[in-house]
Amino acid sequence: MDLQQRLEALLGPTLEAMGYEMVRVMFQGRSRPTLQVMAERKDGRNMTVDDCADISRSVSALLDVEDPIQGAYALEVSSPGIDRPLTRAKDFMTWAGFEIKLEALIGVDGRKRFRGKLLGLEGEAVRLIADGAEVLVPLSDLKGAKLVLTDELIAAVTRDEEGPQADQQGKE
Fold this sequence. Notes:
- Helix content is 31%, strand content 36%.
- It is α+β, with helices and mostly antiparallel strands.
- The chain folds into two domains: 76 residues, 2-Layer Sandwich (GMP Synthetase, Chain A, domain 3), CATH 3.30.300; 83 residues, Ribosome maturation factor RimP, C-terminal domain (SH3 type barrels, Roll).
- The chain has a five-stranded antiparallel β-sheet with strand order 7-6-5-4-8.
- This is Ribosome maturation factor RimP.
């Protein structure tokens, strides 16, 4: 198990117990290593500074005890934000209908980078319309994907004070 998988396995249950879902855990940097923990509320409401502070305190205490990372590093806790990364299968269903950028590890029809309208999932593949053609990218071949900041996305996210997921849940 690599460091990222160990961190996900270690932090995931704590976040779940606190009422959050882990969106992404990333450890990066050499001269100033940073552990980024990105989370969102299970109830779909927008994250607050207090939510991030609560997560930071709990995660920091857990990391102090378990000590999975050698050496000094900075801990950064954040919400996914409006132009969020899409990291879980459910994200591709929740955010269907919005514009995304996607990068594949293995080329699809000679391309690795796509920008287009997310259609959701088909089996184990992300489905989108890019340059007028439907594209399927297997989740296992996904290097990264994120929402593109558009007026439509901003309107959907700000339309409802409950947060974007509460608004999107009717689409599932």
